[in-house]
Design brief:
With about 210 residues, this protein is mainly alpha-helical. The chain is built from nine helices and no strands. InterPro entries: BetI_C, Homeodomain-like_sf, HTH-type_TetR-like_transc_reg, HTH_TetR, Tet_transcr_reg_TetR-rel_C_sf.
Length: about 210
């Protein structure tokens, strides 16, 4: 029982430190944010205590990417219950845009992508997360294609699953970036992204 409480305490403290790191990366940028900044954000803890949980800023980025993957998994889980296969895809895009358009989420994602271009290790982590997202999306498209075929609805070719996954990802990513530049246009961006997603999928049907 004591071991369970200790594990829960460790996880809670680690999560708090990760939130502090994320806040610093958003406010200052990955490179400008120092270990001292993160320690101060976390309530003035010592660097030694921080390193007990994360050996480097890179380890913090890896943990932040893991958090993002968990959020993505929840999105896919939520849309899997939608009966209409096309609406499941459209709903995923809508929820993805709403998540990506949150300012802090968007700024942090931009910082991590930027660092992935400078650091081979961070690049590996980001590419792994992107591959995981892409594989989930392709699987969702394949399931939707099969379901539409059973309902005698027009479907796209199996070879187009990958192309559609890329296009849908571009829609979500593009809307998220535009939201950083045009924060007052969130509702419009979300609506347009949903319309584009539906149009993209239907235009591929034969």
């Amino acid at each position: 029982m004591a071991r369970t409480r200790n594990a829960e305490k460790f996880d809670a403290q680690r999560q708090g430190l990760l939130a502090a790191a994320g806040a610093c990366f958003i406010r200052l940028g990955f490179h400008a944010a120092s270990i001292a900044d993160i320690c101060a954000e976390a309530g003035g803890i010592s660097p030694g205590r921080l390193y007990h949980y994360f050996p480097s800023k890179q380890a913090m980025v890896e943990a932040l990417v893991a958090e993002e993957r968990a959020e993505v998994a929840l999105l896919f889980g939520a849309v899997s219950a939608i009966e209409d296969p096309l609406e499941a895809i459209v709903s995923l895009v809508e929820r993805g845009v709403e998540l990506g358009c949150q300012r802090d989420y968007g700024v942090l994602a931009t910082e991590i992508v930027g660092e992935s271009l400078r650091s081979a290790e961070v690049g590996r982590i980001v590419r792994y997360a992107e591959r995981d997202y892409r594989e989930r999306l392709i699987a969702l498209l394949a399931d939707a294609r099969t379901a539409r075929a059973r309902q005698d609805e027009p479907v796209w070719a199996a070879k187009d699953d990958d192309r559609l996954a890329r296009g849908l990802t571009m829609i979500v990513d593009g809307a998220s970036v535009r939201a950083l530049l045009e924060p007052s246009s969130l509702k419009t961006l979300t609506r347009e992204a949903v319309d584009l997603a539906r149009l993209l999928v239907l235009s591929a049907c034969r």
